[in-house]
Amino acid sequence: MRILVTGASGWVGSASVKELVSAGHQVLGLARNDEAAAKITQLGAEAVRGSLDDLASLRSAAAQAEGVVHLGYNHDFSQMAAAAQTDRAAIEVFADVLQGTGGPLLIASGTLGLAPGRVGREDDIPNVSVHPRIANATYTVGLADRGIRSMVLRLAPTVHGAGGDHGFVAVLARIAREKGVSAYLGEGHNRWPAVNRLDAGKLVRLAIDKAPPGSVLHAVAEEGIATRDIATALGQFLDVPVESIPVERAQQHFDWLGMFFGADAPASSARTRSLLGWEPTHATLLEDIAGGHYPGH
């Protein structure tokens, strides 16, 4: 199948492109500049120029494909509403192109804030007030009624691995190195789910190959890792003390990350595994930290 991938040169996108190519798909990777185009080509895909802000380029690229994997997103927390609007406009373009074809349209979302107080499941419907992006996922699931094999892939908040993760754990490592202490909040019993980027890429490929219309999938390899254990692993690798700090000091110590690091947000992928036969096989988060993939600079 000929698949367009947005975010193809990114953290999850590059792993997904390699999986799709290895499975025999022809992949078009959306590239906003020469650097991204070169990386996409190295992955074995064909680079097509365009950006999420240029709807004409998205329409042109999607028209060359039989399906779309939409992983590109602006994760600037100071522009959440604008980023969600850009995302929605892109999804609507892809829907217009794929309508009635039965072709796959997979978009990325997240598990954070899914089911406060318990383990989140694929059939949970999160409150749209948690993040403006959630409404886009709901819209995408509904595209199954328009003859599109629509799928929402909820990624764990920590997608880890070797090769340049710039996400939450990388920020935690930088803060620990800068402040000389690897901290957690309160007792540190709150849990974060995680998935290795290579396992996430494999799930994207399985979804494109066989997920039914309207599927909601969880890219979660580890249901919930105690934040105290994450802080301890970082402290051991960075050789800094590990300490608890009061919850009321979360923003002072962690800046914007404080509002997330105190959340208890475990999530299950049991239904996803049963549906698609997905079994994560790559390194765990704590193994990747111990392996030196989060040096904090």
UniProtKB/TrEMBL annotation:
This is SDR family oxidoreductase. GO terms for cellular component: cytoplasm. PANTHER family: NAD(P)-BINDING DOMAIN-CONTAINING PROTEIN-RELATED, PROTEIN YEEZ. SUPFAM superfamilies: NAD(P)-binding Rossmann-fold domains (SSF51735). Residues 3-210 form the NAD-dependent epimerase/dehydratase domain. CDD domains: SDR_a7. It holds the Pfam family Epimerase. GO terms for molecular function: aldehyde dehydrogenase (NAD+) activity. It comes from Stenotrophomonas tumulicola.
